[in-house]
Amino acid sequence: xxxxxxxxxxxxxxxxxxxxxxxxFTDRHVGPDDHETSFMLSKLGYxxxxxFLAATVPPTIRIPATTISDVTMPALSESxxxxxxxxxxxxxxKFKSYIGMGYHNAVVPPVILRNVSEVFLIRSLPTCLxxxxxxxxxxxxxxxxxxxxxxxxxxxxxxxxxxxxxxSLTGMDIANASLLDEATAAAEGMVMSxxxxxxxxxxxxxxxxxxxxxxxVLRTRAKGSGIRLLVGDSRAALEDPELRADLAGILLQxxxxxGQISDYRTLADQVHASGALVxxxxxxxxxxxxxxxxxxGADIVLGNSARFGVPAGYGGPHGAFFxxxxxxxxxxxxxxxxxxxxxxxxxxxxxxxxxREQHIRREKATSNICTSQALLANMAAMYAIYHGPVGLTRxxxxxxxFTQLLHxxxxxxxxxxxxxxxxDTLTIDVSPVCKSxxxxxxxxxxxxxxxxxxxxxxxxxxLDESVGYEDLETLVSVFSTxxxxxxxxxxxxxxxxxxALPASLVRSSEFLPHPVFNTHHSETEMLRYIFHLASxxxxxxxxxxxxxxxxxxxxxxxxxxxxTWPEFGGVHPFAPVxxxxxxxxxxxxxxxxxxxxxxxxxxxxxxxxxxxxEYAGLTVIRAYHExxxxxxxxxxxxxxxxxxxNPASAVMAGLKVVPVKTHGDGNLDLAxxxxxxxxxxxxxxxxxxxxxSTFGVFEDGVTEACKIIHKNGGQVYLDGANLxxxxxLTNPATCGGDVCHLNLHKTFAIPxxxxxxxxxxxxxxxxxxxxxxxxxxxxxxxxKGINAxxxxxxxxxxxxxxxxxxxxxxxxxxxxxxxxxALLSANYMAQRLAGHYTLRFKNDNGRVAHELLIDLAEFxxxxxxxVIDFAKRLQDYGFHPPTCSWPISTCMLIEPTESETLEEIDxxxxxxxxxxxxxxxxxxxxxxxxxxxxxxxxxPLSAIVLSEKEWNRPxxxxxxxxxxxxxxxxxxxxxxxxxxxxxxxxxLLCDCPSVEELAS
Amino acid sequence: xxxxxxxxxxxxxxxxxxxxxxxxFTDRHVGPDDHETSFMLSKLGYxxxxxFLAATVPPTIRIPATTISDVTMPALSESxxxxxxxxxxxxxxKFKSYIGMGYHNAVVPPVILRNVSEVFLIRSLPTCLxxxxxxxxxxxxxxxxxxxxxxxxxxxxxxxxxxxxxxSLTGMDIANASLLDEATAAAEGMVMSxxxxxxxxxxxxxxxxxxxxxxxVLRTRAKGSGIRLLVGDSRAALEDPELRADLAGILLQxxxxxGQISDYRTLADQVHASGALVxxxxxxxxxxxxxxxxxxGADIVLGNSARFGVPAGYGGPHGAFFxxxxxxxxxxxxxxxxxxxxxxxxxxxxxxxxxREQHIRREKATSNICTSQALLANMAAMYAIYHGPVGLTRxxxxxxxFTQLLHxxxxxxxxxxxxxxxxDTLTIDVSPVCKSxxxxxxxxxxxxxxxxxxxxxxxxxxLDESVGYEDLETLVSVFSTxxxxxxxxxxxxxxxxxxALPASLVRSSEFLPHPVFNTHHSETEMLRYIFHLASxxxxxxxxxxxxxxxxxxxxxxxxxxxxTWPEFGGVHPFAPVxxxxxxxxxxxxxxxxxxxxxxxxxxxxxxxxxxxxEYAGLTVIRAYHExxxxxxxxxxxxxxxxxxxNPASAVMAGLKVVPVKTHGDGNLDLAxxxxxxxxxxxxxxxxxxxxxSTFGVFEDGVTEACKIIHKNGGQVYLDGANLxxxxxLTNPATCGGDVCHLNLHKTFAIPxxxxxxxxxxxxxxxxxxxxxxxxxxxxxxxxKGINAxxxxxxxxxxxxxxxxxxxxxxxxxxxxxxxxxALLSANYMAQRLAGHYTLRFKNDNGRVAHELLIDLAEFxxxxxxxVIDFAKRLQDYGFHPPTCSWPISTCMLIEPTESETLEEIDxxxxxxxxxxxxxxxxxxxxxxxxxxxxxxxxxPLSAIVLSEKEWNRPxxxxxxxxxxxxxxxxxxxxxxxxxxxxxxxxxLLCDCPSVEELAS
Lengths: 1000, 1000
Ligand SMILES: Cc1ncc(COP(=O)(O)O)c(C=O)c1O
Ligand SMILES: Cc1ncc(COP(=O)(O)O)c(C=O)c1O
Ligand SMILES: O=C([O-])O
Known about the structure:
2 copies of one chain form a homodimer. Chain A is of the alpha/beta class. In chain A, a hairpin with a 4-residue loop joins strand 9 and strand 10 (347-351). In chain A, helix 15 packs across helix 17. Chain A is globular and about 90 Å long. Chains A and B meet through helix 1, helix 4, helix 5, helix 15 and helix 18 of A and helix 1, helix 4, helix 5, helix 15 and helix 18 of B. The complex binds pyridoxal-5'-phosphate (2 copies) and bicarbonate ion (BCT). Bicarbonate ion binds at residues 128, 131-132, 370, 549-550, 643 of chain A.
């Protein structure tokens, strides 16, 4: 191994002219330097990167090196990027929005802003592992669950806090750990109602006062699921016995889009009497004052938790919550954290009830959700912990008071408030004063204020935590300038005594009584709690996280800095387009770059996860077929090795899944594909393929496969989760695809955030472009666009900045170089491990793609060891285990990415090789099969600090904790021992301990 | 103990009108809530805070409650504060400064900005303990050194990196871990030269091309030290044999203020031949290209390390470096980190050669330096690690290239560059083109550019890392607009081939070859290194740091956020005053608030540490006496219990220290004071007193003492380190003082940063106001102001924002409430510990002030235990030990501050009480005297993970590591065992391991 020489950053850019900036990004992003790549190449027997690439990637699909280069995509240095982001940010005009409709101005407590958002972002823990690793193992529900909660107790505790907060505020039994946004959560509620009826009742009724973006997303989803969606006046509709008989559920908004708060008790009774479910979209802050839906009969309660400390960010990301009654919990979509105990009997958190999810149930899952919004859920939970029930109530009361004052103010000016019962939102009839709402909007614009556009004679105003008394005065003055009435309105209004909440709906029940919400209220306590939780979690700041298919690369500081600028944080997604030129330009540039990279014609960045992208892409394909009079095409071919989200998304799009086989060598069985394509040719809609395959190999047959599909009338959907192996070398279009999604939270460096946020844009060929998703409130998508797939017109808009910055800073050369090094590192690793482990698949030249699959099956027989035992033992070595038991139950899928240095890669290989030696001692009988370093792994501190008597192990403490010398200098310790999942699912506890529990 | 109820934030503010902001700060800053303060009061037997305060603070010095209240000092909420900071920030005009003179625009690598500045700030480690705890123990140099390196290895390693970097770049043998700024470092160099001559040679010669602010500070200091300061042409001056005979040293600037690089070899030989020392002020970045001063004969090399990634911040803070030849190391001022080993033989860092310092040598110390600039030194070291020698050279070469292009450009336009050899700075004669430099300055101003004002026909331009090619074009265009010459100048200039560095001074020696500077060049590696180091250090994010006299309170996020705004970061300290209205206003408000708080008339925020404040205050007193024809007054009375900085500062100000006794009850011996004051009445200059005393008690006699001094013609200097016990209850003016310094890094919440930055403003009575420090370049101070005491006109200007924000957010009520709770918490702690430990001092009512002193002397005899054994054992409990062995060698001084909650205070008391039980086992003989839980403490992980054979302790691993149950959930582990200081000072190693060392 060569001694690490001073870094030569020459590779990435053509020899840089003397005048170029020095703070170039590529050499900071890519781990191995030129010396190290040469060394790796020589170990693999190549004299150049080119010869290595030629042996790795099929020549048939290679694109010219000039396609993605600094000529086509010039690189900006870090400071140039920031200057450009500033310039674009300044094109977003700073209006204060009172638009509401689910989006508010948030006040992020500084201690949370700095220490949760940033620390958590940087220290992001992957959870894609969580959700996928056991997807092909039908015997998942065992103590050997391969998820790694032992090194994730901090994040898990925080998500339990979130679940507890949601359940407590909504008055429901159980809540999950977040969904993508309010609109998709509503869609999940709709589908759950339908499934609950045994798919017998096909109608779902949506109250017309539900948010319009929610209705749009419901339309898209209803179509795929074969649900009859009706929108209208709920009370009137329920008079209809025919509807009642077919009704699966009803969706109500509480308070509704106009701010009105209605008592839905009677309605709920009626719905229940007819055998349907009540789904309620609601607002967490309002629930501090209002009777929670759980107390008036809702079965499913959902909404957006963003106003708990998450900035609007032009629409996202934010966490959606989803809570149900106890009876519905096994049908609930999304991740659920529960309490269990570890082998030493200590309490420990981990995922609960995973059998509900797509990675287990595949096409039988009711939802395709995988990546969700963990980071945003954590922020919202921290917000509630910081304020506590008393603080939250004070915030809500103040907003309500201000809304009452505004009410009194505008009425004094002659306007008429339409809604009589409200929390924070007024719908105001302007006609008594001026002839058109436009007059008021124009007056507002002069004060840099946005109001909600209701119709030609009504405007809407929604207040939030950020509104101070001066803002209120300005707001009233907007109205007063349109009249000849008094100007000093507010000061003369007496403080209201009664509230404008309906008396029957004033909350009487306690909420958030748990100690965690009543303890950390000083900044010192909050800070220590945040850091204490973070200290339990292994993250990229400690070591590589070589999760195959997850692409855990550097999340650079420079790409994340603009995100926290006010220019980007405070923008309402429905702000007039002329106020968001900066965002528009960034989105346009990102879409253009993604099209260059994928070889496609158009892009939509609306989907806010990979799975959402799959669903969007398939729905686009369906719309395309329909436009050609082939709406009947509904068969989707999917290889057995595909990620669980693929079949689940296909079903959501209304497709029938037909599996395709793979050969023993890992390649797609083209004969089987051909046979099935031909068999279904009249109904063939699509074929979904992941490339390089989920087995980590570039298959030669991909172009052939695409030809077969096209010949039989189908469209090719390319799952772009593995795009990190393609950029600059090939692309989905060249491979023969028609549409693909990308995971910006993998390939394009958005941090995983402990399970989200993510962005799953889709890129499509020209013929599909007209069908890209639209939005009811903001012009976007194709001219024949499908309905919206996300609440926000541009999905999780604010974090697009990260991928935009990543691409701009690398430039074409840097992007390609990253791919090359990702491939090289994986192959180097494969070579080092090959003498010790069975490499499951490689191409004819012996090469893998950007990840490698090792098979541990042989050790089960020889030593009674399963994949999980290796994974837990890796924890003792301070590493995060790779993806386990997916896509093959006996395998580990390892992906180093380009950001890890040779030193770190070697350290990981050394650990694996050392573990192999430990295994040898078990095989040879030196160590017992049931009590050895692997079976007992991981060894947390509590297991090491045992007294002599208790230490009844056939190995020493040093062997357990410090199997290699470098661990003495640097080791991450798991905080609990192996966790008993069976116990946890049998004794399901998904909320924080209460006062009583803690006392006992 | 009452169950922690939802927080009621009512105390701080008068019942808040409904319209007030909810994000008030006081209830976030103060740990105990109203329930907890009531509980503590009841335990102490008081029914109200008022009755408690009456028993604690002498009524004679109390000020009316109305003095410091929300009426006199209204509170802003967190968001109001940010809005106000934004508004003020926007009043600083954004000019790009090319002024140079020691201040440059820095490019902070984003990974360092986010993860060092912020993480290190928040996780600030105190080092005032380091420097003060053993000050009264002449037997300090023992294995029982009471400093806590076991929980500070990360910061110590980083400071060693800094020392290594400085030594390597300057070509010197050894460097310290930072001084306050370049000017004070030069003053230290001057005094060292004088001391080196045995105080026999009284002349110090300063080259006239040294920075003017340095010369000003030298003047101040030369006067106090009795040194004859001469400024002029060095070469000419050295011709004078008389001067040569009396010459202690000479100060040269390399490159000099005009940018010129001179070969000083012959001059250095001459100086050495005459028996004097060569002191050189230099620029680190230039030294990557230039022969380092160590290679041409400098004995002392110093400067400012700010251009290594530290923003100008309107003058500070920044780290100054100081390096010397091996022979001078024992006379070097400031902190020095060295390598030693722990009891297990593992390498470990700790402070070296502490016997040089003021806390040991008091009035015999040559420097008073205590708090220095650890945080800024860490940032600079991280910058060098990130870039490495190759990267640093590229940066320097590019700046030099641009400077050459500028040179060619302005000459083509007809201007004349005066200096022929340069690195980054040109001095340009404008007279061939325009009649006055003002024409050029005016043209520059139109482009928002500042150039250096040299004189009426010359301007100066200094380039730095932030300058891009476009900036260069703009710069040339400034000159071209003043001529009728060509406009497209730059493009036509060929790239220069030769450099403008003198051939004889091109660097040939290698620098920074150490692995640490050649490894962490990718962002992932850098991030992991930063977090790895931080993980070794105990900080406020883990637990209270109850260091008596250090006031480790919350450093709130909101008070630190504005600091990172570009509005405040990039401002040059010598920018025209009309560009810094925002800074001016903030400084004015802070000075006004500090005057209100201290009861004084005027304030200077120039001193950049507490010790610097002492020196400034005493110098002001001397100037006052002088102005009255009493310049002969030179006696300073100082109690024996005073902090080591007091006598050291007095000596620096040219005063003779006469110690005053204290009584057995801890109070000042007024009779002794009176006797000494009368004895010295003709020469009495000052009396220095700390209040409350360093023993942690409000002495009744303070007013009487001040009267005695005044009666005898002296002035009273009040050391304000303990002001946290005074704010709102009393003040230094009411106590009878004439001048005091404040430690903004204690009382006013600037984080300690691991040993700085600090700010030590002085407040003075009206008669002293005319003498407040001036500055040669910016108008400040009194009309008869003493010379400057810091390089920057407003010292560490940027961090003043923190204290400004702290005061504004608390408001008068919050400030007073903080004091009250600080007193209450200390007294509650005293009460809980009193049954188990000997409380050394209290007032007649049994009350202590804001800290308490417990005496452990009895355990030496009974169990062979010293203070250090208790301190190290506290580390095993996860706590940072209190101040040890100061102000009494057998004592611990404990200060909880107002920010700690009752729960944390109780946890600390529980730990102390439990340790007392462990001691009982030793006293009773159950545990051996030489091998027990205390003597073997701390127990790092490496000591716990020992095999059965090696664990030869008379207690279990659990007793060692988890003596209380809460440690299992949350424990901070020391990373090394107890450190052998004797070994380290005998085998002095103050730099990073080299390649060879690491290999062996
Ligand atoms: C191959 C593959 N497809 C799809 C997905 C789904 O992406 P997401 O988690 O963003 O929904 C993943 C990963 O999670 C994946 O690995
Ligand atoms: C009583 C006292 N005086 C003076 C000082 C010196 O302050 P600084 O460290 O800022 O120089 C300190 C603390 O360090 C102190 O505790
Ligand atoms: O979640 C993943 O399957 O990668």
